[in-house]
Amino acid sequence: EFHDKIEPMLETLENLSSRLRMPPLIPAEVDKIRECISDNKSATVELEKLQPSFEALKRRGEELIGRSQGADKDLAAKEIQDKLDQMVFFWEDIKARAEEREIKFLDVLELAEKFWYDMAALLTTIRDTQDIVHDLESPGIDPSIIKQQVEAAETIKEETDGLHEELEFIRILGADLIFACGETEKPEVKKSIDELNNAWESLNKTWKERLEK
Questions:
Q1: Which one of 183, 198, 205, 206 has the minimum C-beta count within 10 Å?
Q2: Quick one: pLDDT at residue 51?
Q3: Signal sequence: where (predicted)?
């Protein structure tokens, strides 16, 4: 009865352990990372469901070993002990790997949340600033008024120059996110950074044309 029950348990644990040994494919999008975290928790849930059977098999195996005597029985006891050791090894391996994966997913999730939030916020700021520059009044006729307009445009330019540091920081965040997720997610992240770069170049071009005018 012990051997009939422990064999399926070993097979189940070995399959789960093998699944967790494969390096995880980590997406760059926040919602998809959360899905990965949820899927990873399913391994822990499976262990919780198996816990009563695991404990019962462990107790039964130890009882059988304790009752064995003589050379033949020692051999049987060794076989039981080997299977118990395998079961415990797979059990602990699954727990450790599931925990390791969760830590990895949570680290990438934090990075992804910051990247996408900061990227969207800066993109909105750049586009709003471009609209402000574009909507500046046409140059006046009086030199003193034109001078005031130039000063106003240069003030806006100073403010936008301050955004460049944020842009560089987001570029670094994007590179870190690609490194954490892998090359498969590079196109999606790069596309967003390119969109940010294009908006920045467009803003500078609009400001330069406005000031020259």
A1: 183
A2: 94
A3: none
pTM of the model: 0.80
Instruction: Give residue 73's pLDDT.
Output: 61
Q: State the CATH class of domain 1-108.
A: mainly alpha
Q: How many residues does the chain have?
A: 213
Question: 1-108 with 110-212: one CATH topology?
Answer: yes
On the CB side of 131, CA atoms within 13 Å amount to 6
Domain covering 110-212 assigned CATH 1.10.10.60 in the classification:
no
Alpha carbons 123 and 200: distance in angstroms, whole number: 8
Q: Who contacts 68 (Cβ-Cβ below 8 Å, separation ≥6)?
A: 74, 76, 77
Give domain limits for the chain: 1-108, 110-212
pLDDT, residue 69, reads 64
CA distance linking residue 153 with residue 157, whole number of Å: 6
Q: Which of 147, 124, 143, 118 is nearest to 203 (CA)?
A: 124
Tell me, what DSSP letter sits at residue 24? P
CB 207 within 8 A of CB 131: no
